[in-house]
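Dear all,

This email documents one entry for the complex benchmark we are building for the journal club exercise. For each entry we list the sequence lines for every component of the assembly. Then comes the predicted three-dimensional structure of the complex as a token string, followed by one or two observations. Please use this as the template for your own entries, and keep the labels exactly as they appear.
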Amino acid sequence: MASCVLEAPLRMSVLSEVTASSRHYVDRLFDLDPQKVLQGVIDMKNAVIGNNKQKANLIVLGAVPRLLYLLQQETSSTELRTECAVVLGSLAMGTENNVKSLLDCHIIPALLQGLLSPDLKFIEACLRCLRTIFISPVTPEDLLYTDATVISHLMALLSRSRYTQEYICQIFSHCCKGPDHQTILFNHGAVQNIAHLLVSTSYKVRMQALKCFSVLAFENPQVSMTLVNVSVDGELLPQIFVKMLQRDKPIEMQLTSAKCLTSMCRAGAIRTDDSCIVLKTLPCLVRMCSKERLLEERVEGAETLAYLIETDVELQRIASITDHLIVMLADYFKYPSSVSAITDIKRLDHDLKHAHELRQAAFKLYASLGANDEDIRKKIIETENMMDRIVNGLSESSIKVRLAAVRCLHSLSRSVQQLRTSFQDHAVWKPLMKVLQNAPNEMLVVASSTLCNLLLEFSPSKEPILESGAIELLCSLTQSENLALRVNGIWALMNMAFQAEQKIKSDILRGLSTEQLFQLLSDSDVNVLMKTLGLLRNLLSTRPHIDHIMSTHGKQIMQAVTLILEGEHNIEVKEQTLCILANIADGTTAKELIMTNDDILQKIKYYMSHSNAKLQLAAMFCISNLIWNEEEGSQERQDKLRDIGIVDILHKLSQSSDPNLCDKAKTALQQYLA
Amino acid sequence: MGIGLSAQGVNMNRLPGWDKHSYGYHGDDGHSFCSSGTGQPYGPTFTTGDVIGCCVNLINNTCFYTKNGHSLGIAFTDLPPNLYPTVGLQTPGEVVDANFGQHPFVFDIEDYMREWRTKIQAQIDRFPIGDREGEWQTMIQKMVSSYLVHHGYCATAEAFARSTDQTVLEELASIKNRQRIQKLVLAGRMGEAIETTQQLYPSLLERNPNLLFALKVRQFIEMVNGTDSEVRCLGGHSPKSQDSYPVSPRSFSSPSMSPSHGMNIHNLATGKGSSTHFSGFESSCSNGVISNKAHQSYCHSKHTTTSLNVPELNNINVSRSQQVNSYSSNDVDMETDHYSNGVAETSSNGFLNGSSKHDHEMEECDTEMEVDSSQLRRQLCGGSQAAIERMIHFGRELQAMSEQLRRECGKNTANKKMLKDAFSLLAYSDPWSSPVGNQLDPIQREPVCSVLNSAILETHNLPKQPPLALAMGQASQCLGLMARSGIGSCAFATVEDYLH
């Protein structure tokens, strides 16, 4: 009975809450009695908890500016200021619109100002509110970095309590996007300040600190190299991370520490054959891909694993045999499953939301797995419906999936066997050509790279690709601002021209135009130059082709060759150029373009006596082709070359210690004897 | 070469996996063979220098292999029980090194076991309990309350019942009576205990001649000990020093008692008034569920030191023996401890421990040392000649009673042994350090006390065991049964883990 009496007033207050309008709460904030204002804020706090409608009402009624005013007033009691921060934090917990309204009222500077208070409870309330605001997707993370003193103050506050530690780490890990932010935090001593939190007694602090390191170290060699030497309580960070990978730890913790170790490994801070990578990180990430994990975890696990093994064939081999990973990944394509569609709308929604992410993650991981090892590629392609999935992926609406599918295709296209078989069976060139139309550069780079492989002479896809207008596309790529695209464009053209028929060669030349050809020959990038020379060399093969092309473009080509031989280029470029000359010298009519060009002849002579044997050999090919006996006019050419002193050099070279040069010189001299 | 598993009786001249009840992973093609001559693509091939591991999971009856420390994924599911590790060699001169855990494994099996331990524990934690709201909590409260009542913690029981809105089935006076008798037994004052029992429950001992006999045998032992009232009044000891349970809180605390429990006892022993009762109630509650850290870690270390590649199998063995031990200690240790000042009492929680034999022995050593230090010279019947004579006389009566019992109820080996053991005490010049000296240990009063308590409760149509103890006993038995039936998950579940 006694307890009933006690409860009565409480019931009444609940009743009044329901009936009173939200207006009442706001009005009370303006009371003249500070004690009543405090009670008003506390009542408001209790009213808004978990009540999104109430939160929206209060915001509309203008509670936020008043709360901020009270929070900032020096005359307000600490208790009042703390309660204001708590209510604001509660409002921020609501919808994204709530957060937007708070941001519009300039809540962030006010809360940051609050952090300067000596009162810990108030600081914690401000940090909690800041945390809630910063983790919202509508808050621009740059707001954290507008004032340089903020970061150092936050670093200092890290020592105050487990709550400041948790909130600050959470703010950092959400606001650290890209190398600039990483550098700012790093320069403010983030590593030293946060490292010891990894062994905190509070799980939340440990977890948020770990998240901080995973974003700080991501693709950041500087941070990664530092982390590897930091120790806490006599234990190095990599060891601490390995402990957090243990299978009885929460999945979130395992996954995040695997990300830290992955970043450190990719930065070179940990060797790829270190047992903490091979026996701990890699198996952990494979486990994250298993069906038992949540969809989000599987996406993150696969992406991280793809990154870890991307450039190391040994890790690729280990991953490929671990827990049937290749088969496990096939499951990533089964969402939304046909079951979920019928039985459970909620599940279908969830599946749909993650389906794209799952597919692109699987493609990425397949791409990494198959990057170097032919056996692995074979295993991937033999996975159920793999080629169909790639082909479908190439035409998906999500650009992320398309890009990942192209990456996967590119990786697999390095296999000669697959080019000849499954690539042909599934006509992958069709969707690939489609992807290349109006695609963003990132996609074009990978797609054109793949196209390069599909245009190799042994590839059966070569013909249909040509017919679908590839030349035009590739020629346009060579004009791109993007270096990788220029390289890929000209590379693909080079492959295309290899042992091609006359018509294709003419088409390429026409499509490219001589102006563009010259442009490419003077490209600042040596790769572009090399591939362009390669293209020229492929164009100038077999006698009829040589004569035909030289008859139409002879003048320009000779000019270009001269230019390069005179310019400052490396040995490979000069060698390639001399090989072009040798090809020209192989033509019937084209020969005359050299013989009548004294300048070129002098250059050939010069390279015959060059210190580099490769260049000497290449120059000698030219001479051989020019003086070959059985061809018409060989006598005159032999005479002319003897006149400019070639024979003397040949004699000298026939004494050379290099057997190749020696043989070649002797064969050439025999032409004179016959 | 094939590595795998076979049941008993499988042809040893063929590679594992080819025949029925035989499973294998073959190095030449990397295929797995599941009782069939045709293999399935499974893993990579293996050859000289490779380390192949084979792990059977007895929880989900699957098997996976490892190559050089890398898990290759599940090879077989739905495996039958009782498989033996098998290696089949085909090529002359082939050599295999087998490691059953004598060296560390390349694969991190400890980590794998950690995951499964966590899984099993999560499964237990998430086990659905009663749908209706509050039902579960009410049941728990009833269990706690009945436990308190059973052991006669009347003040605590009252306070607990009050705060949880429960009714106590037994009358308060009845609880207090039981409490009085128990106190006497635990203080070694058996004569008074028997007398009081006969006064309060006139027909009880008449109907239970075996119980009366057991009480009398205990009385005889206490006479030898010099603690029974009949000899004590004849002896020269100051009653005060003999009056209370003659051991310090430390020595009678059973292995799994937490330190805080010990402190409690001090509080309760010295405190007076209702506030003390209340704090007693609170701490008793918590004591009931806090188990000793040291003991827990002992369990854990036992699990973790098992590192065979077929880990669960081993763990079952370990846990099975543990279960047996703990069950036997249930029987022995079920007792209540009392303080002579009457209002404050607490349980030693002996049956919560599930202590192993090893622990138990250690405890006995402890107690004996305590006695040594407190009573430097121990004398038969407290050293009084008159008391010795009384004891001898009582012994003769006991002998006569035993013979009468045999005539009336037939042979009873337990009784016979009990009497023989008790009389054996007289064969030694120093009974305390004799091979039968442990009878004199005050802790031996506890089983007698418990039996008497149960008998009294039965006359009131109340359960002779509190439901809490029953539930725990049942859980332990279940785990034992699971182990015997080859249900592997019991390896990662112990009752002790949940007594905290």
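Observations: Chain B is about 50% helix and 10% strand. Chain B has a mean pLDDT of 74.
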